[in-house]
Specification:
The protein has about 270 residues and is of the alpha+beta class. It has eleven helices and six strands. α7 runs antiparallel to α8. The longest helix is centred in the N-terminal third of the chain and has 20 residues. The two termini are about 25 Å apart.
Length: about 270
């Protein structure tokens, strides 16, 4: 894991060349394939039309997917380094190396249902993602027919549970669910708001300056959220904490909201741990 060089606010970034707390050979091969696949790229571009152009929501396209996938893998790496055992791949008789593959594929494809409609999009993502997985997974020597079926089921489960009342039954699905909520800087929040509005959703989403993932002292993961206004706490409560609840990884994650307020005399820093 490394820090981003090009974007000082990007925080931790998954780098295939770094050492990780999990076997990463399969993940890196799958990432190379999926991030260059023409159909997947087309979906990531097309899926932004309904939520953004037609309904006035924030970004749900390629940038959102890049952020969510990166944070999901960073979150997973920290959890594995902290000794957290994952159950999704294991329950299916798949390898530990497939845990990160499930997470990366689900994070990449979780929003493609937006090409059908913003409302209930996770349910539309399922058949579209299934078709892509049926094409992509058999190309890898790691998986026979039975493995493809089991891996596909786990990816679809994580997609379904990312933004619905459906309860995640695996730690992999919980990681994707929480990572989706971690894309909240500077108005990229998944909470919708009216363009130009001044309601709490607008003000709070604009207050989030940076989100970073670090090893925690009392838990494997510390999520630090830097705000320029205390209104940003609303995003943490209504978005992140809501998705963290019943995610199966709740006990392993701590949240700290850091409010940085500039005054004429000095910069005041207030840290609130949740």
């Amino acid at each position: 894991m490394s820090d981003a060089d090009s974007d000082p606010d990007a925080g931790r970034v998954y780098n295939p060349d770094d050492d990780h707390a999990f076997p990463d050979e399969r993940l890196n091969a799958v990432l190379e394939k999926v991030t260059s696949d023409e159909e997947v790229i087309a979906y990531l571009e097309a899926q932004n039309v309904n939520p953004v152009a037609r309904k006035g929501y924030n970004d749900h396209g390629a940038k959102h997917i890049e952020i969510v996938r990166n944070r999901a893998l960073c979150l997973y790496d920290l959890l594995k380094a902290g000794g957290v055992a994952f159950n999704g791949a294991d329950d299916q008789g798949l390898d530990e190396a497939d845990e990160s593959v499930i997470i990366a594929l689900a994070a990449t494809l979780h929003d493609i249902g937006h090409v059908v409609h913003r409302d209930d999009h996770p349910y539309y993502s399922i058949p579209l993602a299934a078709d892509i997985l049926d094409r992509l997974l058999p190309a890898f020597d790691y998986y026979d027919t039975a493995d493809v079926v089991r891996l596909k089921g786990e990816v679809l489960h994580a997609i379904l549970c990312h933004h619905t009342v459906e309860e995640p039954l695996t730690h992999e699905a919980g990681v994707v669910r929480v990572a989706d909520a971690l894309d909240m800087e500077r108005g990229r929040s998944r909470i919708p708001y009216e363009k130009g509005g001044r309601g709490i959703n607008t003000i709070s989403s604009q207050a989030i300056r940076n989100v970073s993932l670090q090893p925690g002292e009392t838990a494997p993961v510390m999520v630090e959220i830097e705000m320029t206004d205390a209104a940003g706490v609303y995003q943490v409560d209504e978005l992140l904490k809501h998705k963290l609840h019943n995610s199966r990884i709740e006990e392993y994650v701590r949240i700290a909201a850091v409010n940085i307020r500039a005054t004429e005399e000095e910069e005041l820093v207030e840290r609130i741990e949740m």
